[in-house]
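Pasting two entries for a bug report.
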Amino acid sequence: MFNIIIFLIGSGIMFYMAWRSWSRRRRLMTRGEKVEAAVAGTVQSRDGEAYLLEFSTAGGIHHLHYPKPAKGRELAQGTVVTLYYDPDDPAEMYVEGDKSVLGAEVLYIVLGIVLLVLMAGIVH
C-alpha cells in the first residue's frame, strides 16, 4: 500500500510540473508582451551560460538573459527570435519554439505515465 501511495504522489508531482510549465508558457504567450529580440551574444549568468537578448520598446532598449539550453540548436549572434515576457517581472520569459521547455513538459508527462504504469504493475 505504501508503494502505491509513493507512485501516486510521484505521478501527481510530474503531472503538476507539466501543467505548471504549460500554464506559465501559455500565460506569457497570451498576457505577456510579444517582441522581436536579437541575440546580442552570450553572457555568464548566475545559472550558467545565457543568451543576451536585446529588444526595444517605447521605454527604450532592454537586455534580458535567457538560459542557454545544454542541448539543442545554438542561436548565433544577430539571430532574431520571438520573445514573450512579463513587463512586471522580465525574468519570466519564453522564447517561442524553445525545444528545451517543450521537451521538459513532455518528459514530465511521460514520467507521470510511467509511474502510473509501474504502480498498476505493483497492484496486480
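Entry 2 (this is the one that rendered wrong in the viewer):
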Amino acid sequence: MTFHLSTPAEILHTLGVRLREQRLAQSLTQRELAQMAGLSLGALRKLESDGQCSLETLVRVAQALGLLEALDDLFVLKRQSIAQMEQVDLVSRRQRAPRKRAS
C-alpha cells in the first residue's frame, strides 16, 4: 500500500497491521513484545489494532522487533537536482534578522 492518497487514520491502521505482522513473523505474543519494548499490553494492543500510539511507543516497538533500520530513511531530505541542493544550502544557512535602526 502506498500512503500517497491515504488518510492519516488509514496510514496509522496500516502501520499497526504491519507491526503485528512483524511480531507474528518473529513468533512473539503481544505480551512478550510489550515486555521487550517496556510497554503495557494495552498500549501494544492499541498500536496493533488502530495504529494509535505515541512516537516513543512506535520507536520502542520498532527497536524491540529489530526494525530500527526501517526508520533510517524516514523524513530524510531527498535532493534530486543541483538546483534543489543549492536551494537547500541557501535555506540551511543561518540567517540573522535585520537590526533595528535607532530613531
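Dev reply: Rendering is fixed now. As a check, the viewer should reflect this: Residues 8-93 form a domain with the 434 Repressor (Amino-terminal Domain) fold (CATH 1.10.260.40).
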